[in-house]
Amino acid sequence: MLEQVLSTLSPALEIVGSLTSGREDRLDRRYGDVRDEIVAALRRIYFTPEGIRGLLRDFAEGRQPSREAIEEVLSDFNDAEWRVDSSLERLSFHYLGDRKELSLRAAEQLDKIRYGKIDIRRQLQEGLNEILTQGEDLDPKLANDLLGKVEALNGLIVALEEEHNYRARGR
Question: Cα(11)–Cα(124) distance, rounded to whole angstroms?
Answer without folding.
Answer: 26
